[in-house]
């Protein structure tokens, strides 16, 4: 299957993204308002089949040293058909991001990200939970 990747909040289908993220294990308690705010303050990438959005991810970055990739999701019945790869290729080749160090967190999709040059580093990272965000 061939997918188009679009960038920028204004090109995303906000309602699709909210529904998709609220179906995940990591954002199931995130409000639509919070999701929209997070998108407006990130670089958004979407995979599209024609005009229909079928995938999403976003990048938080200082545009100088580091980016953080998160909220990577593909519509369930279209997984393993290349949409996630199309988005990842767009992220790592984006001129704003291509030379920066990328970081991300994942419970079980390490194999997917390894295809795009990410490596496990269990020793280096720490995180701080809050009552609101886990
Ligand atoms: C993970 C996810 C975004 C990958 O997107 P996708 O469109 O299914 O991925 P692709 O079809 O481009 O797959 C590319 C390759 O990665 C592999 N892959 C896909 N998902 C994988 C996973 N969870 N773990 C390991 N490998 C995976 C595919 O088998 C494929 O391998 P191949 O090139 O050897 O055939 C998608 O499966 C998804 O939305 N999963 C549920 C949400 C999730 O776990 N998101 C990541 C949170 S960190």
Describe this structure in words.
- By secondary structure, the protein is an alpha+beta fold.
- It has one domain: 3-Layer(aba) Sandwich (Aminopeptidase).
- 25% of the residues lie in helices and 25% in strands.
- It has four helices and five strands; from the N terminus they run E-H-H-E-E-E-H-E-H.
- It has a five-stranded mixed β-sheet with strand order 1-2-3-4-5, with helices on both faces.
- It is globular and about 40 Å long.
- It starts with a strand and ends in a 20-residue tail after the last helix.
- The mean pLDDT is 96.
- Coenzyme A is lined by residues 24, 72-74, 79-85, 106, 108-109, 111-112, 115.
Question: Which helices and strands appear, and what pairs or packs with what?
Answer:
Elements: E1 4-7, H1 14-22, H2 32-40, E2 43-49, E3 52-61, E4 66-74, H3 83-93, E5 101-104, H4 110-114
Parallel strand pairs: 4-5
Antiparallel strand pairs: 1-2, 2-3, 3-4
Coenzyme A binds at residues 24, 72-74, 79-85, 106, 108-109, 111-112, 115.
């Amino acid at each position: 299957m061939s997918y188009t990747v679009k960038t920028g909040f204004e090109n995303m289908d906000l309602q699709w993204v909210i529904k998709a993220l609220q179906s995940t294990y990591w954002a199931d308690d995130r409000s639509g308002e919070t999701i929209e705010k997070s998108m407006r303050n990130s670089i958004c990438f979407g995979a599209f089949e024609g005009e229909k959005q079928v995938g999403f991810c976003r990048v938080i970055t200082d545009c100088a040293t580091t980016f953080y990739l998160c909220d990577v999701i593909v519509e369930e019945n279209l997984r393993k058909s290349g949409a996630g790869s199309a988005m990842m290729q767009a992220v790592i080749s984006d001129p704003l991001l291509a030379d920066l160090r990328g970081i991300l967190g994942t419970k079980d999709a390490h194999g997917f990200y390894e295809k795009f040059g990410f490596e496990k580093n269990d020793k280096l990272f720490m995180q701080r939970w809050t009552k609101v965000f886990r």
